[in-house]
Design goal:
41% of the residues lie in helices and 17% in strands. By secondary structure, the protein is an alpha/beta fold. Strands 2-1-7-8-9 form a five-stranded parallel sheet. A four-stranded parallel sheet has the order 4-3-5-6, sandwiched between helices.
């Protein structure tokens, strides 16, 4: 059955690729807003199946990459606090702040622990009630329900020594911000299917209408992406601009109401800074007053905003879809996954990491 499924998908992929070649009559520029889709595109060569007139740009769809340096600085500060335990997913440990990263802080003796769920952090807090346990909550709407549930569980269980450093990011406001930027050249978007599984796609509808850009909710398999590209291009060629749902096996227009309800209980929409993109109104979460006691910023001090210190790294331009990783002179030379200059090379969902992993032989002329 597995072989038959793969054969069927390969045949369908060729069908969509051929249809795209026949349909396209002029150059079009699309953007996928998901790091997982970026990796799938490069890993399976989806971009090479398209018409030469179709250009795919990579957006700010990597939650680690868009986490501001000041939040990492605050996490390091908390981890270095006497009696504190900082819990985080592993992909945050090498993300750079302005004063190093969590991995280096751990090597200096800070109590930084990798967990696989925010509930793991609550369990640690229950096991060590004399310690202040903080979970570094990073992610898009996809991870926010689980983080909210951890806070609810801590409150219901009477866990007083648990709190959360919230660095959540909301995708639709970022899409709007990219379209409002001077010189915006994206003509259609592939929206991240996992985000829409939680949130639905109602929020994209006024964006598509206002800016006249089609938005297609898209899954993560190569066949999903090819179909999403086809649907988006079909709209552009027809002069339409609406939201369509390619990922209908998982996404509904209103999303997952149970997940959204728990998020509304614990979090409220707030302004948020995106690394490499800037300040975006209503693009993050803060705690509602009912759960403010679980806000790590109230316990350890507020995060202080700082300007991005990019140096020679062009990660910000890559996250905004203005340049590609291979445009950077440091790519594969002074910047590698082992010695990253910027977050887009650090994270498993970063565009630079994807190009290094799947296209290094071509871009550098040697194996990575």
């Amino acid at each position: 059955m597995r072989f038959r499924d793969e054969f069927r998908d390969a045949s369908a992929a060729r069908g969509y690729a051929d249809a795209i070649h026949r349909m396209v009559t002029r150059p079009w520029t699309l953007m996928e807003v998901c790091g997982g889709q970026t990796h799938a595109i490069l890993r399976f060569g989806v971009d090479r199946l398209l018409s030469p007139e179709v250009s795919l740009l990579h957006g700010p769809g990597c939650p680690v990459c868009v986490t501001p340096a000041e939040y990492i600085d605050k996490a390091i500060e908390i981890a270095s606090h006497p009696g504190a335990i900082l819990c985080s997913f592993g992909d945050m440990l090498r993300a750079p702040g302005t004063r190093g990263d969590l991995f280096a802080a751990k090597s200096r003796g800070a109590d930084v622990r990798i967990v696989y769920s925010p509930l793991d952090a609550v369990t640690i807090a229950q096991a060590e009630p004399e310690r202040a346990v903080v979970f570094f909550a990073v992610g898009f709407e996809t991870t926010a329900p689980a983080n909210a549930m951890a806070v609810l569980h801590a409150k219901q269980s009477g866990v007083k020594n648990f709190s959360m450093l919230s660095s959540h990011a909301l995708v639709p406001p970022a899409v709007r911000s990219l379209l409002e930027a001077p010189g915006a050249r994206v003509q259609g978007f592939l929206a991240a299917g996992h985000v829409c599984t939680v949130m639905g796609y109602r929020e994209y509808e006024p964006i598509a209408e206002r800016f006249g850009v089609p938005i297609v909710v898209t899954g993560f398999e190569p066949i999903d992406i090819l179909q999403g590209v086809y649907m988006c291009l079909r709209q552009l060629e027809d002069g339409r601009a609406v939201v369509e749902n390619q990922y209908s096996r998982a996404v509904r227009r209103d999303g997952n109401e149970a997940a959204r309800r728990v998020m509304r209980d614990v979090f409220q929409v707030a302004p948020r800074r995106w690394r490499g993109v800037g300040d975006i109104p209503e693009s993050g979460f803060s705690f509602t007053e009912a759960y403010a006691d679980f806000d790590a910023e109230r316990r350890f001090g507020a995060v202080i905003a700082r300007d991005d210190a990019a140096g020679s790294c062009i990660a910000g331009q890559i996250l905004r879809g203005e340049r590609r990783p291979t445009d950077c002179p440091a790519f594969g030379e002074s910047c590698t996954p082992e010695r990253p200059l910027g977050v887009t090379m650090v994270s498993n969902e970063g565009a630079c990491a994807a190009y290094y992993r799947y296209r290094a032989l071509e871009t550098m002329g040697a194996a990575p």
